[in-house]
Amino acid sequence: MSNENGAISHEKVIIVGSGPAGYTAAIYAARAELKPLMFSGMQPGGQLMITTDVENYPGYAQGIMGPQMMEDFRLQAERFGTRIKYETIAKVELESHPKKIWSETGELYLADTVIISTGATAKWLGIDAEQRYANRGVSACAVCDGFFFRGKEVVIVGAGDTAAEEALYLSKLSPTVHMLIRRDEMRASKIMQNRVLNTPNIKMYWNTEAVDISGEDKVRAVHVKNNQTGEETVIEADALFVAIGHKPNTDIFAGQLDMDEAGYLIVTPGSTYTNIDGVFASGDAADKHYRQAVTAAGTGCMAALDAERWLAAREAEAVSA
């Protein structure tokens, strides 16, 4: 049944996206009796739904499978009254009061506040074998998965600061880190380049690209090609880490919310406030540096608290007016 402006409902809080940030925001908002409505998005649970073992999230002493962890988060959010719609958002008007949200089915929802937790998606190389070996030696997060390959040879692809940071992290775990650079120079900052080049067990491969992966049931070798000479070689390794960047899932907010050149949402430092009053951003959609489940959950908590306090201030203004 619709109400004002033909909207399906008018909510105090709508959460766009799920994952650790969205579910944590939902838990806090629901416990504050804000009765949040969540649109879970195309991949309920976010990137952890395609992650196998999670060993670095506090509270899971024996580790946990990513999908099971997100199921735990979801059940906890629903326990406190969060309503979840397994739909994506097609359109938003965030500068209006209340904010207007249209679902993929064309239905309009109104919201006093909006918490964005749409996450970011790793960029891949585009070779067929990447998906075949996903969670079997192919990863887009060395900090998440490098520990599983300690003492083993690994390959990393990338030339920016993130790739350099991850190569340095892996160098503490692996006898040799084979680093593939597509061009004859790195894009990373000079200080990061120097650290990589001065680390003895990081072996550089200039003008080199990964073209295939082989192994029976998991990665055993990465096939590479020199794009200048055409020479192909095989690197025996147990893992391939792809560190060529992430794309934040924020296109729908373009032109309304401030974002950097890569599309990450910009928030007021120390908070989740965006440039639009009553709109808050959490998780990887606003975090280009850490991209960890635990940090995403933390900002989800912050977003819910920010939204609660924003609503309380508006109500206090209305009473005193």
Strand coverage percent: 25-35%
Average pLDDT works out at 93
Cα-atom radius of gyration = 22 Å
Secondary structural class: alpha/beta
Number of helices: 7
Written account of the structure:
This protein has 321 residues and is α/β, with parallel strands linked by helices. 26% of the residues lie in helices and 26% in strands. The protein is built from seven helices and 19 strands. Strands 1, 2, 5, 6, 7, 8 and 19 form a seven-stranded mixed sheet that branches. β6 and β7 form a beta hairpin. α1 runs parallel beside α2, α1 packs parallel to α7 and α5 runs parallel beside α6. The longest helix has 28 residues. The chain starts with 8 loop residues before the first strand and ends with a helix.
In short:
The chain is an alpha/beta fold and 321 residues long. The chain contains seven helices and 19 strands.
Features:
five-stranded parallel sheet, alpha/beta, 321 residues, elongated, seven-stranded mixed sheet, 26% helix, 19 strands
SSE inventory with pairings:
Blueprint: E1 9-16, H1 19-31, E2 37-39, E3 53-54, E4 64-65, H2 66-79, E5 83-85, E6 89-93, E7 99-103, E8 108-116, E9 120-122, H3 129-132, E10 138-139, H4 142-145, E11 154-157, H5 161-171, E12 177-180, H6 190-197, E13 202-205, E14 208-214, E15 221-226, E16 232-236, E17 239-242, E18 246-248, E19 279-281, H7 293-320
Parallel strand pairs: 1-2, 1-8, 2-5, 8-19, 10-17, 11-12, 11-17, 12-13
Antiparallel strand pairs: 3-4, 6-7, 7-8, 9-18, 14-15, 15-16
